[in-house]
UniProtKB/TrEMBL annotation:
<dbReference type="InterPro" id="IPR029016">
    <property type="entry name" value="GAF-like_dom_sf"/>
</dbReference>
<dbReference type="InterPro" id="IPR036097">
    <property type="entry name" value="HisK_dim/P_sf"/>
</dbReference>
<dbReference type="InterPro" id="IPR004358">
    <property type="entry name" value="Sig_transdc_His_kin-like_C"/>
</dbReference>
<feature type="domain" description="Histidine kinase">
    <location>
        <begin position="821"/>
        <end position="1034"/>
    </location>
</feature>
<dbReference type="InterPro" id="IPR013655">
    <property type="entry name" value="PAS_fold_3"/>
</dbReference>
<dbReference type="InterPro" id="IPR000014">
    <property type="entry name" value="PAS"/>
</dbReference>
<keyword id="KW-0808">Transferase</keyword>
<protein>
    <recommendedName>
        <fullName>histidine kinase</fullName>
        <ecNumber>2.7.13.3</ecNumber>
    </recommendedName>
</protein>
<dbReference type="InterPro" id="IPR052162">
    <property type="entry name" value="Sensor_kinase/Photoreceptor"/>
</dbReference>
<dbReference type="InterPro" id="IPR036890">
    <property type="entry name" value="HATPase_C_sf"/>
</dbReference>
<dbReference type="InterPro" id="IPR003018">
    <property type="entry name" value="GAF"/>
</dbReference>
<dbReference type="Pfam" id="PF02518">
    <property type="entry name" value="HATPase_c"/>
</dbReference>
<feature type="domain" description="PAC">
    <location>
        <begin position="212"/>
        <end position="264"/>
    </location>
</feature>
<dbReference type="Pfam" id="PF08447">
    <property type="entry name" value="PAS_3"/>
</dbReference>
<keyword id="KW-0597">Phosphoprotein</keyword>
<keyword id="KW-0418">Kinase</keyword>
<dbReference type="GO" id="GO:0000155">
    <property type="term" value="F:phosphorelay sensor kinase activity"/>
</dbReference>
Amino acid sequence: MSNTVVDFGQWLSEHNQSERSLPRCAVLHCTADCDQVLAAGNWLDLIGHDLKLGLSLTEFCSRYVHEEDGAILQQLAGEGKKSCGRVVRLRQQDGRWRPLHTTATTLKPSEEGMPAVLSFAFVETVVDKSVIDDLSLQRRLLELVEKYSRVGHWHVDLQSGSVFWSDEVCRIHGVPPGYHPSLSEGIDFYHPEDRDRVDAYVREAQRKGKPFAFDLRIIRRDGEVRVVRSRGICTTDAEDRATGMFGTFQDVTEDVAHQQQLKATSVLLETILDANHNGYWEWFIAEEVEETSDQFWRLIGYGGEEDAARPSSWRALLDRTTLAQVDEAFADYLRHCTGKSFSVEIPFPHKEGHTVWILRQGKVVDWTPDGAPRRAVGTFTDISDEVENRRKVAWLETRFELASQAAKVGIWEVDPATHQVKWSDHLLPLLGEAPGACDPITRLHPVDRAAFDRFVDRLKMGEGEETLICRFQRTDGTYADIKLTGGRVEKEQYIVFAGTFQDVTESLRTERTKNDLWTTLKSETLDFPQKMRCLLKQASDYLGLETGIISHIDGPNYRVVEAVTTGEAIPQGSLLPFETTYCYHTYNKTEVVAYHKAGETSLQSHPCYQIHGLESYIGCALIVDGVRFGTINFSSHDARGGPFTQPERDLVALLAQWVGYEIGLHQSMEALRESQQRFELAAKGSSVGIWEFKLAQPNEIWCSEHFLENLGLPTYPRELKRTDFHDLIHPNDLEMARSALNNHLEFGQPFSIEYRLRHATKGYQWMMTTGQAQWDECGKPIRVIGSTTNINRRRLMEDEIRKRTKWLEQTNQDLDHFAYIASHDLRAPLRGMDNVAQWIEEDLENGQIDDAKGKLLLLRGRVGRMNRLLTDVLAYSRAGKLDGDPEPVDMGTMLADIATWTTEGTSARVEWGEGLPVIETIPTLIEQIFTNLIGNAIKHHDGTDPTVTVNYLDEGEQHHFIVEDDGPGVPQSVQPRIFKMFQTFGQPGTTEKSSGIGLAIVKKLVESVGGHLWILSPVTDRGSAFHVTLPKVMIQRRSTAEVH
């Protein structure tokens, strides 16, 4: 193969010089199999490339030839010998495309053994710019046509296997424009199940050289399966051998789907028509021929064509009037034909005599070129049951219409298709408009539009029955209150949103008036006469009448209790003869009595009408505590436009009940107030305060004037809020008070307690409260009444007596203990002194003067100890009874003074930290406490350098001092006894004698001001810690008699 190439190159080199001499011309030589290509000529001048390397024809095309023109070279090579010229675009050095006129010629070298040579000559062609522009325009138009017709073109070079796809073919396959697959890559897009069938079509086309067309499925790059329709032809050479294929691709996926759906629909239609027993007709209009299925004739009682009684045409069964209506319906359809079907309902006479209603419907499916109908098809459907149902529905609608007019109720619904609200004809007349005059929704109050839209949205969401009251404007500018009620109804595949509407203007006005009347009744700012006048005014305005009166009937007299009028004033207390009033006809009735035109009734001859001349009157009897009291009535001299409505009558009856109750309550309260005034006069002479609260109004407590004075509170108003009263109770007594009251209410236990209430200026005061509940017939408490007495002085005296008794008891105990100790401990030194005196007496008798003098010294020591003991006993007796007023004491300064006294002549040290407080106390008391504690620590130390430390803790309401030493400590076994009198114990290494009273004195001093003293001493380690707590507010217990 390499020799062949070399020889081929040598052969070509002989022709290069002559070919280079050709102006603007270049040559491409290749072997017959196109496997080896060599360039010659002026390639550099033509396209800016100097082609010297050997390439295959395929490689040359892919590098330099326009993708749409590569097949042209392949085709020229396949035509053999000498081909006619074609224009081929080659890529220039600058990237632009240059058209060159190209021819192909097969040359056979004279040397033997050399292969045949295929030569392509490329010559510069001069083309008119307009021709180029026209070609570009045509190519662009081709691209647009392919894009919008969704048809692309392709061609295949069977020799080289190259494939060209237009942009539309690329789009159909889901690949980017400019994608040109190999033949095998193109086949890979085919659906695996269609490849064999496509291969058979293509082979058949190549064998016979005929055009081909087939549908196949392709699988796009994104995995989507599409159906395409391919049409094409094969190109052949001079010997009729297939050299390539050219054709088109069209995406027909939707068309195929529609055809399949149409076919399925056709089958379904035929099945449905048979299943529903519908007849079928086909009308050839121009020929005036109509074919009718047998099923139609069976609908009206006839058999098939063999039925001799069957008419030749269904038209023969109709009378002239009905037939004219049928023809007019079809003519009207043609005049307004929009592509929709027409329908007409026809009453056909059944063979057996009764009428069968048939729905004839259809559509023109074929037209002549001039627009005339040519052919129509349709069905006959038996709708007799539907017509009968419509007749029944019409009758029901008529009945419903009459009922709706009577009840002023209408129907509304939401159209599922347009979402518009449809209203029955009742709404607009309610607003003063004729039915159909306008869309009622335009009369909806703008403020209510958003609420109405939410109402409809809630219905669509299926949240159950919904109700809305909104306002619609009347023609006179006023608004009617319309109540909408509706819901969502689902039935099979249908969903309906519908409901009713009703004018509730009057009922709402009545409800608002009732609410206003009730608010007036419950008012706490209006007194009884003001309430009655306000009620009469509100009801008169509601009824549209001039006068409102509350009367009291007492025998023959009619007395005006309260009255309001727009005319001449009616004085309170006015008296009229009862028989001359309209109420004469009302007083003994149980129902409301009303006249809207009294002059047209039997009253025209009665004195009430002849004297007062009232045309409009409505009244009702008043019942007070079960007894007829009088009447409440409203009237005017002018006649009303119509009778009093039932809501108006009901409101007057309700108002009569309320007013009757209020009159009874007022009378009871007046009687109670008089009784209360008498009671208060009696209570003022004592220290007792009275209170009451009702279980129905548990948050209010009524209090007498004296009760409030006992607490230093204002005497008006007389009511206390229950929460305010609870705030007056001492926190420690509140739960006890609640428990006592609950036990009284639930179990009937006596309610009597002593507790503390806070006085406005004197702090908490002791009170004694007793009370008694009142129960109804069911045993349910309804109110509690009680009294409260200030016992603060008594309780303070009792507390003082208890404290003095306790103090005396403790004093007696201390005295008994002191007497016992003194009788024992004071007797011991006396016995010692007696013994020494006897010894001295014996020494003197024996003449032992020196010995007697020595014993006198011992006697003097015993007397000194006795003196110290008596001094300590006196100090203990006076402990806690020091006189003097508290004053600020700087503890740091005091400890410095005490340290100086107690350490004088010793090596002891007293230490304390910073932050010692300044306390309010009696200085001598604090001085004695810390002198004893520090002095004891030094005296009983077993070493040579004692150290005493004083620490301080601030514990809120008390001072906490800690006196620590590093001495031998106090054994835990004796710690409980060290604060008792005359309790001493020896410690190894200490020689100090003690009377055993010092710590007892300290304890008594500390406790006399409400403090505490205790010791903490380690079990094994040295040292002791005395803890002293003193209240920041000290209580000094003073003696009533000094003990000497």
